[in-house]
Specification:
CATH architecture of the largest domain in chain B: Roll
Shape of chain B: globular
CATH topology of the largest domain in chain B: Ubiquitin-like (UB roll)
Largest interface: A-B, 62 and 55 residues
Largest sheet of chain B: 5 strands, mixed
Strand order of the largest sheet of chain A: 3-5-1-12-9-10-11-22
Oligomer: heterodimer
Structural class of chain B: alpha+beta
Number of helices of chain A: 19
Structural class of chain A: alpha+beta
């Protein structure tokens, strides 16, 4: 492998660091345009109702109101049904409202206060209907239908095999069967079973959704600045809604203030785009924090019924699982989340007999869908909790039990993907071996004090890398352009949502060219007019896929510079080496050409600016109707060790230490990797103990920062990061991914630590002090 | 929206004298962002919980999303833009970069402002003091540990 010249593996600060700490980093909400209007949205007042009439006369007459648009005034292309998996939603509801985040009208006005006053002045007459609110209500015979026209809905091709086209409230069903679970049950020495429930969780990116649209009347083009890690997906989704070819829509993402899976589908963008076109003025809009809780989707809640069977020596013989989820009124990602969860339910373990079933239903709740981990944290909570119980029953150490079942090279996953060591790499066992030492370290210190009981828990997880599971292939492209002075401009379409993608890609290109980082610039904004297409920040794909393209682009530039230098110096390229922004003749000190000299020669003598295009194509075998396929480029592996203190009087849990042991293949920037591990660990703590979006009657009861308990400074435990680097055979410099995996096992590790401390098995998230107190006072 | 009851506001912002007409109900955050185009202070929660909008008023950290612009008349406001001279960075800003105390950066201006006040009050704080003082600033990306590290580093602890 080519050595990386010091930039790969460096703890380099983010390229955006100076802008961020001086307060000069521009997010979408920080942008202003001359003559700009402000947009507000009018939502439904009821979770299920027939709309009898919308009277916007008073709103339209208000001074300062530029436009009020309902479905009746919107152009036909804006009124088409939309949806990533199922086209089941209209941007402007007309005859029916199915949840309280249905939008009935949009307003553009001179300032936000006028816009809001106009929204409040819109009168809607409803015939209120009884809502469908739970999974059980949704599948009950004779249940009211959330979507009466569902059988005719269009679906994306990857969701079609799972879509329920019948007259009912079922969105999708799945089934994955390997071997013979019933026969395996008869041979099992121990069987453990349980039902586990995870909650709805809000992404709570500190930056709420925001967008600013500008319509260029003369050029016939629409520009939308917005907050997403997936600018090209937004381009694909938005252009048809405004009836324009993609060449006439331009998406620009300035700094993006967090994502966590919450900024992958259109939110306010289409509304401001429509208003900008109609008013011919720039229009800015965004969600308030309260709207974030209501209008943007939540982490899909899972009910997981799980059963595991073992031989006496601890070998897993079977897994049977049933997954149940409520997508709310519209299916953006919930079905995909359940499918992804199903592919990850066995964990990184060999299970010869598997039967997984799953159902996603429509209700009149607000939407649920994607969240960092995409179903894996939910299923890991159930599986890793049960493995802990099994270890107790079998009398085997919990790490040892996992090791006896851990994937080894050559094993086959439940979906049929072969863990070919030449392509994928398998290192879950390494994280478990490393966890032994951490458990010893935690056990050796901190005696129990007073009424506090101390416990330690372990859990593992894995995460498939790459978005090919839905698309069939995962493609990344990076362009490198050489400047006159030999510095380099790197052009990428990646989503940087704070995870450091730009910095890591720059380090990879710099590594190939042995150039100091300061000699590279990466396009700070993603502008779909200029940047190459990219699938964006999702599916743990960015570093693996686009990072590979960056390495290819850097390597091509290196080769071209060497070639040109060889011609000028009349030396074979094999005798040339790159160092410090120059090409040197091996063994002849002083005979060198700087990159600038090479580029100037190329421009002036060869008529060429050196520009290279690096590509990575990652085709996969997509999942079929039986959930069989080989959909991932690789896997991340992670084991978490949690230490807790439980107040035996009150049930209050304090996580004192969290250790994340993760194999990232290669840490391109260890500081970024540690940041991902720590952030994931504390988000996992929120999932485990604190956070829950509470629904009642189809309404969100706690849509405010003060009612939704995010982890704060005093909640953060002492964090330990153990980075393992088993190079992936295909990743850039062996790198895989970092961001999603560290969140995955945290809830189960904390649950297992609570079990260790108290003897109580918690099977419902969040594990609040109140719920544990109740269990403790019932005596476990 | 301007109306007849506008107040004449005189305030020092990041060391510069500013005179503006504002309506009595105008929030300090909107005044700073929309009128002065000082956009470092961010809107995060609207209810004084997340700390992204924190600025200093006469040296004390306040949530500008719940503070009236009228109440800074004849007082001194410092935003993240004013924590160091243009082209320079404070010790605290340098420390945030050195330890990687931010990811998306949306909460960072508010964090830096609160932490500046903390270090003014407690020049050599303990880890516990930092956690307690900073608990009104939320971060969703980092898990907090590195922010504490950066503040301790800048404080020389």
């Amino acid at each position: 492998m080519h050595s990386a010249g010091g930039t790969v593996g460096a703890r380099a600060p983010l390229l955006e660091a100076d802008a961020i700490v001086t307060g000069r980093a521009r997010f979408t909400t920080d942008l202003y345009r001359p003559g700009m209007l402000h947009a507000r949205l009018r939502y439904s007042d009821h979770p299920r109702a027939r709309v009898l009439g919308i009277d916007a006369r008073r709103a339209r007459a208000m001074p300062g109101v530029a436009a009020v648009v309902t479905a009746a005034e919107a152009p036909p292309e804006f009124n088409q049904r939309i949806g990533l998996s199922v086209r089941d939603r209209r941007l402007l509801a007309d005859r029916m409202v199915r949840c309280v985040n249905d939008v009935l009208a949009v307003v553009a006005a001179e300032d936000e206060a006028i816009a809001q006053a106009a929204v409040d002045a819109i009168e809607v007459e409803y015939e209120v209907l009884p809502p469908v609110l739970t999974f059980a209500e949704a599948i009950a015979p004779g249940a009211p239908l959330v979507h009466e026209d569902k059988p005719g809905y269009e679906t994306a091709d990857y969701i079609r095999p799972f879509f329920s086209p019948t007259v009912d409230n079922v969105a999708t069903r799945l089934r994955l069967e390997v071997g013979d679970v019933e026969a395996a049950r008869r041979h099992s020495a121990a069987v453990v079973a349980g039902t586990f429930v995870t909650q709805r969780m809000e992404h709570f990116s500190l930056e709420p959704h925001a967008a600013l649209a500008e319509w260029d009347e003369v050029g016939g083009r629409l520009t939308v600045w917005c907050s997403t890690g997936k600018p090209f997906r937004f381009l694909n989704q938005l252009a048809p809604l405004v009836g324009l070819p993609m060449s006439r829509v331009r998406i620009v993402t300035p700094h993006v203030g967090g994502d966590f899976g919450g900024k992958g589908q259109l939110a306010v963008e289409p509304y401001v785009a429509l208003l900008a076109r109609l008013t011919r003025r720039p229009v800015k809009g965004g969600y308030t924090r309260t709207e974030e809780f209501i209008a943007s989707s939540h982490k899909t809640a899972f009910e997981i019924e799980l059963e595991l069977g073992f031989a006496a020596d601890g070998r897993l013989l079977f897994l049977r699982g049933d997954l149940r989820s409520d997508t709310g009124a519209y299916d953006s990602y919930a079905s995909m989340v359940q499918i992804h969860g199903a592919t990850h339910l066995t964990g990184p373990y060999r299970v010869p007999n598997v039967l997984i079933t799953g159902t996603v239903v429509y209700t009149n709740n607000v939407s649920s869908g994607s969240f960092r981990g995409f179903g894996s944290p939910q299923v890991s909570f159930a599986r890793e909790s049960l493995l802990d119980e099994a270890a107790r029953q079998l009398g085997i150490d919990p790490i040892e039990l996992r090791l006896r079942n851990a994937w080894r090279p050559g094993d086959v996953t439940a979906t049929g993907q072969v863990l070919d060591p030449e392509r994928i790499g398998v290192s879950i066992a390494d994280t478990l071996e490393a966890a032994r030492g951490v458990v010893q370290e935690f056990s050796a210190s901190t005696p129990e004090v007073g009424g506090r009981r101390r416990g330690i828990g372990v859990a593992s997880g894995h995460q498939g890398i790459g978005g090919g599971i839905w698309a069939g292939a995962d493609v990344g492209t990076v362009i490198v352009k050489a400047n006159f002075d030999g510095s380099m401009a790197v052009n990428v379409g990646v989503g940087d949502v704070g995870q450091g993608a730009s910095t890591a890609l720059a380090q990879i290109v710099a590594g190939e060219l042995r150039l100091p980082l300061g000699q590279l610039v990466v396009n700070a904004e993603r502008d779909t007019d200029l940047a190459p297409y990219d699938g964006g920040a999702s599916a743990s794909r960015q570093l693996f896929v686009t990072g590979s393209a960056a390495q290819a682009a850097g390597a091509l530039m290196r080769a071209r510079l060497l070639e040109i230098a060889g011609q000028v110096l009349e030396v074979a390229t094999e005798d040339l080496v790159l160092e410090d922004g120059a090409v040197h003749v091996r063994g002849s000190p002083g005979r060198r050409l700087s990159f600038g000299e090479i580029v100037r020669h190329a421009l002036q003598r060869l008529g060429e600016q050196p520009i290279t295009v690096g590509r990575f194509a990652g085709p996969v075998v997509r999942l079929d109707a039986n959930l069989r396929g080989a959909p991932f480029q690789a896997f991340d592996y992670v084991t978490t060790v949690a230490e807790v203190e439980v107040d035996a009087e009150t049930g209050v849990v304090r996580v004192t230490r969290l250790a994340t042991i993760q194999d990232v293949g290669r840490a391109i920037n260890p500081m970024i990797v540690e940041g991902q591990m720590e952030g994931g660990a504390v988000q996992g703590l929120g999932f485990a103990l604190l956070e829950e979006v509470v629904l009642e009657g189809g309404y969100v009861v706690n849509p405010h920062a003060f009612d939704y308990r995010l982890p704060r400074f005093p909640d953060a435990p002492s964090l330990k990061n153990v980075i393992l680097e088993h190079p992936n055979p295909r990743g850039p410099y062996g790198a895989k991914a970092a961001g999603e995996a560290p969140l995955i096992p945290v809830a189960a590790a904390i649950a297992n630590a609570i079990r260790d401390a108290t003897g109580v098995r918690m099977n419902r998230l969040p594990m609040s002090g109140e719920s544990l107190f109740e269990r403790l006072s019932r005596g476990g | 929206m301007s109306d007849r009851t506008d107040l004449r506001l005189r305030v020092r912002v990041n060391g510069e004298e500013v005179m503006r007409e504002v309506s009595p109900g105008r929030l300090l955050l909107d005044f700073l962002r929309d009128d002065l185009r000082l956009t470092a202070a961010k809107r995060g929660c609207d209810v004084q919980v997340c700390g992204a909008c924190t600025v200093l008023v006469d040296g004390a950290p306040v949530s500008s999303c719940c503070y009236l612009a009228a109440d800074v008349d004849r007082r001194e406001v410092v935003t993240c833009e004013g924590l160091a001279h243009p082209g320079q960075k404070s010790k605290l800003q340098e420390a945030f970069i050195a330890v990687g105390a931010f990811q998306c950066g949306y909460c960072t201006p508010g964090m830096l402002v609160t932490a500046t006040a903390l270090l003014a009050e407690h020049p050599r704080p303990t880890r516990e003091q930092v956690a307690e003082y900073m608990k009104g600033n939320l971060c969703r990306c980092t898990g907090y540990a590195r922010i504490v590290d950066a503040i301790l580093l800048a404080g020389g602890s």
